[in-house]
Structures are given as structure tokens and as C-alpha cells.
Amino acid sequence: MPCVLVVRMQEMFKRARELAEIISREDTIKIVGHIDADGITSASIAAITLERLGKNYDVEFVKQLDPPTIERIKDENPPLVWFTDIGSGYTEYLGDLNFVITDHHIPSKLPSKSSTIIGFFDNFKKILKRQLNPHLFGRDGATDMSGSVATYLVSREFGGNVDLSTLAIIGAIGDMQDTEENRLIGTNRIVLQEGVRAGYLDYFIDVRFFGRETRPIYKMLEFATEPIIPNLTGDEKACIRFLKNLGIKLKDRERWRRWIDLSDEERRKITNEIALLYLRLGYGHRFVKKMIGEVYILTKEEEGTPLHDVKEFATLLNSCGRYGKCEIGMRVCMGDRDKYYREALKMLNHHRRRISEGLRYVQDIGIVRHGLVQYFHAGDKIDENIVGIIASMVLSFPDIPHELPIIGFANSSDGGIKVSLRTVRENVEKGVNLGEIAKVVAKKCGGIGGGHNIAAGATIPEGTEEDFIIMAEKMVREVLE
User: Fold this and answer.
1) Contact, 202 vs 293, CB < 8 A?
2) What's the rounded mean pLDDT across residues 292-316?
3) Mean pLDDT to the nearest integer, 108-123
4) Residues 6+ apart with CB under 8 A from 466
5) What are phi and psi of 368, to 5 degrees?
6) Measured CA distances, 77 to 29, 241, 282 (Å)
7) Which CATH number applies to 3-160: 3.20.20.70, 3.30.460.10, 3.90.1640.30, 3.40.50.12160?
8) Alpha-carbon distance 265 to 246, whole Å?
9) Per-residue CA distances from 383 to 315, 351, 397, 420, 441 (Å)
10) Stated pTM of the model
11) Residue 394 pLDDT > 70, yes or no?
């Protein structure tokens, strides 16, 4: 590792110690977390850490941090607020609030100058010193470190807590931080290795289709979306026929066989045939590469459950958070395998149905191209909290130009419009930054936005969607051309 990166890593760990010291001085702390898998695991790590320290705490999950939400938190007058997987993009609104932030989203720019130079630098110094964020140390928040990993780095400063590396990795996978090389890299990997050495985590190379441990093989293939399998995805009968033609038994007596039930030879046979299918139909090596990569498991969880495979655990948490049931997910993270776990499984089934319905709806209405971007508007047919997931999946469809960033719109419960932006790594390498685009364009539309270079979101007033598309396309064009 180059010397500069080593020094910056040491600075990052030093910042984690500084935040731990701030936390240790307070007896009561309010945790504010985001509503996705990364946010839920981040808040859970913070809650377990404070519980072990014997401190009082309460947890609140928010969809976004806007000025009204921050003002409400200020009115509660908490001794200390710990923002997890959220907060870095809104530091200009925090004012004199006593806070620490463990986040990985693009931070706010310099705060506005106050009436005095001294006041300006004091405020700026506080904002920097109170955050653990990879962007502040020259690292990429979309691939190097998730919010949960940032929170874990602070947690481990209190001694031990290596078991919480599991939650950190679940959050990282839930935030799709393993998509660039089909493996975790950077600080995420350091935490992964800590968990492996302690016996809580393991990983190996395998197919990366969702449902390896819990779905019958034909169902795993039928619902494959990352990437899709041509001629198989969405067609149950075709999947059954495909497996039978390869001589793969679908059942073991009365029990449907899953991917983990197959022999190594059977797995190789299926994998090779899918790879040939991609190549024969002109999909190219990109899809073959995307199919194979590292798979992460939790060694202490029961095999064959949604908690054993990290990707499935993350999806379970997303299914809770996306529908306003973050506490259920947090209780599962904190060890519940009874009441809350059963509720989480119900939410997971509900989530799967809504995803399938959303994908079918987008296929029905189609994607509209505008210059160098493409978009769809789901209105109230797709829940605002999963429109980003739908956009990511749609971008991998064979008839969709994957090189064009995609924008998904859906009606928001507050009367506005939820916007989700997604693109591929190749565009990011060319300089496209969706987080910056979402922030700049949403502000011009009278809304608020932000996120990562490869995935971002915004909320804008109804009726400004066309303006958003035009301005976003212009910013993309300025980079790509």
C-alpha cells in the first residue's frame, strides 16, 4: 500500500479514537440512522456499543436529513447526537448541536462564512473533527467504506466488539460496495479480515445470484437480476427445462434442492452453461464476470436461512427499512431470533412481491431516453423507498443501454417526487458523479439531494421532473463529451 494511503489510513483510525472519546464523555446519546440496510446496521452497531458501555440511548431512523428534521432534533436538546450512515451532507444545518458523524456520503462543502473569521474557522474545525468519513481522507465512500464500517471503526475503539464486524459487512454489502471488483476492497476488506480471523465471517468464490441458500435452484435462476440471465430470468418453465436438460435433479425426495445442496460438479455444469449462454447471445464477458465473485457468510448463523448469507441478511434489513419498520430490522441485528425475526421474514416476503411488481410495471411502461440519460416515472405504482432498487435492476436488463445513467421517479408520501439515480462504474471512472448531480440539480428545482458517485437520490417538488432531467443530462453530457 503506498505510503500516502497508509498515512491517511492512520489518520482515519485516529479520528475514530477521537470520536470514541467524545462519545465516552456523555451518559445519554441519541442515535440517528438512515432507513436502508447500511443505516440499520450502523445504528445497531452504535446501540450495541452504547449498551455494552452502560449508557442511555434512543434510536431514530430518518429517510433524509433536511432542515426541519434537524431543527426538531435540536428542540429535543440531546446531550449528544450520533449520526450513523447519514449527516455528512447536511453539516451546514447542524449549527451548535453537539454531534458526531460516522458516514460515507459526500460531505458538505465549506460552511458559509459567519460574521467573523474566527467563528468561521471554529465552525469548520468542529465539522471536520466530528466526522469519520472516507471522503475526508482521500478515499471513495462508494467502495472503500460503508456507514456501518465507519461506525464499527469507532465501536472497536472501546475494546473488543469484533463480533460487530458482521453487522459492518452486512451494511457494506447492502450498500453494494462489492460491485466494482465483485469483492470488498479498502477499509471494508480490513474489517472483513478482522471478522474472518475472529471466526465470525467467511468468504469464497461462487455465483452471486440472490437466494443461493434459501430458494430452490430454479427459483434462484428465475429471479436472477444482478445480472439477469437471458432466456431464463422471469421464466419459471424455462428455468426448470434448463436444469433438466443439464441432468440436474430438482428435488431430493420431497424437498426442493437449493444451490448449496448441489455438488461441486453440478454447480460447475450450471455455471459453465450460463456463461456460454451469455456469450452465445452476445452479452459479452461483462455479464460473465458479474455472475462470479466473492460470497460472504456469517459463520455463527444457521445455514439455509436468510441470516447465513450476508447478501440475504442485507435484503432482509432493506425489506424492513424500506417500509418504515427499521426497528424490526435493528432488533434482528441485536440478536432477536424470535418475534422480531418472524416479523422481518414477513417483511422480506412483502418486499420481494413489491420488487417483482415494480419490475413488471417498468417493463410495461418502458424507459424513455433523453440525450445521455434515460428515465422512467412510476407515479404511485412503485413505492418511493424501492424506486432506487428498481432502477438498479432495470439498468442490468439486456434491452436497456447500460452505459446511460438511469433516473427513476416516484410519488413521495409528502407530496413531492422521489428521484433515484444509478449508473455503471465505467461512467464513474470517466468523471460522472451522481451524488453531485443530485445535490446541484435538486437544489435548483427547489428540493434536496445527494449520495454517491454511482448511486444517488433526491426529493423535488412535483412538476419539476422535466427540469431535473434536462439539467441532469446537461451535467452528464459536460463530463462524457
Assistant:
1) no
2) 95
3) 49
4) none
5) -105, 135
6) 11, 62, 60
7) 3.90.1640.30
8) 11
9) 16, 10, 20, 12, 22
10) 0.85
11) yes
